[in-house]
Amino acid sequence: MWTFDQYLLRNFFYVFFVCFVAAFGLVVTIDLLENLDEFMLNNQGGGALSLLISIGTYYGYQAIFFLDRGGASLMVIAVMVVLVLFQRSGELHPMLAAGVPMYRVLRALMIGPVLVTAVLVANQELIVPVIAHAAHGGRGIQTGEGGQVEPIYDYSTKISINGEKVSLAESQLEGAQFVLPAPLIVHDLTIIRGTKAIFRKAAGQRPDGWVIFGAAPQFEELALTPRGQEIVRKVGRSGELFIASPVSCDQLFKRKSSSNYLSTSELLGRIRNEAYGPLAVQKFVTQVHGRLTQPLINLIAVLLSLPLLVRRESAGLVMDSGVCAVAQGILFGMMQLSAYLSTSGIIAADLAAWFPVFIGGAMAAWTRDMIRS
């Protein structure tokens, strides 16, 4: 049976790879046709080889993000395709006639999705956070204009952060503006402006914060309170200022989607951090629960597909595939409905995340006895 399991696993991974290449290839084709001019403009006469390298680099990053977003759906599609082909080729009936239970026959199609889910989790936790800056990057090697800044308020220090352009790759804020509140940080409301500010992560005794270059007013001109002296410091020989704040660059650009590229540990850190407001924290909590439930939903979707595609009273492969697609649509609809209810504040974030797991698990258990034996 191990040889047969290997055969099914090979087919599953082959179909998954083909589905991924076909789907992502279609995305690349459409996007490249629409944005080839942008690649050529940013290439700035670098030649054909330079253009191909920039295109390959950009879509290499996008392939990782595409796998993160669509890997679960492609996994379920791969299971459905393998089962349909397995039945069309007549390979299922001899196994059942030999007395092998159906779930033992299809064991490989349960192991394969577990392995794919593990890869998706590793991709989401280890790879995506490292290359998150490429998610919103421009097309081409010369793109460095930065993105439009979305001002943010640091709830822990009461400091407002703004600027002209932000670069996620360099953790840099151009035309930086930091509004120091009175009387918490300074005795009079003060706006510190700088040519640029670079975010530095905590190291040793130094907390997270921003190093401001070309700061005005300078450190000696600030009327800092005792609390302000802990937050605002002078660093470097050129009079740069350091302002302690855990608010990083990703919160200054496309804030609604930037947290999708954080690891779960980073999300938990932000939930415990006082710098973020209640709405942001609620969103982080929802995302953490989503990270916990997504692997379960992936496996539930597979367990829901198996009995519907090899039903005891089958009406044909086409009808079985249609019923399976409808069941998957219901599961997906419940996920979207739960997310909407959570965002609207109608139900709690944890309940919204686990509701599809409970309903989907009940559906999978209910359809279990439908499987052919």
What does this entry show, briefly?
The chain has helices at residues 2-43, 48-88, 92-97, 102-105, 108-127, 226-231, 255-258, 264-272, 278-309, 317-343, 349-367, and strands at 147-148, 152-154, 159-162, 165-167, 172-180, 190-200, 209-213, 232-235, 240-244. It has 373 residues and is an alpha+beta fold.
Radius of gyration, whole Å: 26 Å
Structural class: alpha+beta
What is the H-and-E element order?
HHHHHEEEEEEEHEEHHHHH
**Distance N terminus to C terminus?**
17 Å
Low-pLDDT parts are: none
Number of DSSP helices? 11
Number of domains: 3
Overall mean pLDDT:
88
Protein name: Permease
Pfam family, one: LptF_LptG
Transmembrane segments: 12-33, 45-64, 70-86, 106-123, 346-366
GO cellular component, one term: ATP-binding cassette (ABC) transporter complex
Descriptive report:
This protein has 373 residues and is α+β, with helices and mostly antiparallel strands. The protein folds into three domains: 1-127, no CATH class; 147-254, no CATH class; 262-373, no CATH class. 56% of the residues lie in helices and 12% in strands. The chain contains eleven helices and nine strands. Strands 1, 2, 3, 4, 5, 6, 7, 8 and 9 form a nine-stranded antiparallel beta sheet that branches. Strand 6 (190-200) and strand 7 (209-213) form a beta hairpin. The longest helix has 42 residues, at 2-43. The model has no long low-confidence stretch (mean pLDDT 88).
Task: Give the topology.
Elements: H1 2-43, H2 48-88, H3 92-97, H4 102-105, H5 108-127, E1 147-148, E2 152-154, E3 159-162, E4 165-167, E5 172-180, E6 190-200, E7 209-213, H6 226-231, E8 232-235, E9 240-244, H7 255-258, H8 264-272, H9 278-309, H10 317-343, H11 349-367
Antiparallel strand pairs: 1-4, 2-3, 3-5, 4-5, 5-6, 6-7, 7-9, 8-9
